[in-house]
Amino acid sequence: MYHAPPVPAALRPYVASRVAYDVDFGRPGVHRGLPSTTLAFVLPVDERLRVGWAGADDQHAAWSSLSGLHVAPAAVHHDGVQRGIQLALTVAGARALLGLPAGELAGALTDLEEAVPELADLPARVHDAATWPARVALVDRALLSLLRRDASGVRREVAHALAALTHGARVEAVADEVGYSRRRLSTLVRAECGLTPVGYRRLGRFEEARALLGHRPLAEVAARCGYSDQAHLSREWTELAGCSPTTWLREEFPFVQDVGPGDDAGSDS
After folding, report:
1. Do 23 and 78 share a domain, yes or no?
2. How would you list the strands of the sheet with 29-33, edge to edge?
3. Which of 12, 108, 212, 227 could hold 232 in an S-S bridge, CB 3.0 to 4.6 Å?
């Protein structure tokens, strides 16, 4: 796999990771796109990306895929091989790069042509580029050009609250810390990312667990991530991922999303 250079410094508040992937699954199939606290932005190479929500009949097939925050797995269909560039955009990145709050894309599957029309030609340019370094450089330049937008940022108190919730802080404590009532905080957080504070905190814990799975015993993962026990972790994992942790490890490990702390080749943060 090509190890991309670090995400440019100007993009790091908005791009949590950027990975060039080239995966041979050996046969056609479906893999799970797991929920997280970031928006998934994918630019496939070779063929359109076919993705839908798990259990639904509808599929979105396009040369780019952009999905908002969600609390159910996506089903990504493939013919045995997948290549492309996958980025994780932060909630702040939605405003800075897409020009809209992440809340407007919550639970949605769309593409660049609809979300950012001025970049409608980027997927074709990435597809036609001859090398991975050229493709990654194209994407970086395109995203940097979007930073010239006159986009308002995330309200400071909400950004602080989202960061605290990601790390497991309780909603009441976060509301007190930023000086809002719990109801006011919930309204602002939902408008910004499309989820309640409890829902966003839940994704933060799930995301932390995902980074540890395969590297630590399940009981230890549960304890470190704030689940009451291993059974609690398994119930939450099954609800959010559509399968047990052990099933996911068996089916998907190793894969582009399965990176441990410090293993992300696309960022030096």
Report:
1. yes
2. 29-33, 74-78, 49-53, 60-62
3. 227
Q: What is the chain's percent helix, strand, coil content, to nearest 5? A: 45, 20, 35
Integer-rounded Cα radius of gyration of the chain: 18
Domain boundary among 128, 146, 164: 146
Same domain, 124 and 251: no
Residue in 98, 102, 96 with CA at minimum distance from that of residue 112? 98
In a domain, 151, yes or no: no
What does the DSSP 8-state code read for residue 154? Answer: -
Residue 269: inside a domain, yes or no?
A: no
Asked if 163 and 136 touch (Cβ cutoff 8 Å), the reply is no
Asked if 161 and 112 sit in the same domain, the reply is: no
Closest CA to 45 of 87, 83, 76: 83
Contact 95, 152 (CB under 8 A): yes
269 residues of the chain, pLDDT tens digit each:
678 899 999 999 999 999 999 988 889 989 899 999 999 999 999 999 999 998 888 888 999 999 999 999 999 999 999 999 999 999 999 999 999 999 999 999 999 889 889 899 999 999 999 999 999 999 999 999 988 665 568 999 999 999 999 999 999 999 999 999 999 999 999 999 999 999 999 999 999 999 999 899 999 999 999 999 999 999 999 999 999 999 998 887 654 443 333 333 333 33
**Token reading at 261:** 């702390």
Residue where a domain stops, chosen among 97, 112, 146: 146
Q: Pick from 217, 216, 218, 157: which is nearest to 189 by CA? A: 157
The answer as to whether 263 is a domain residue is: no
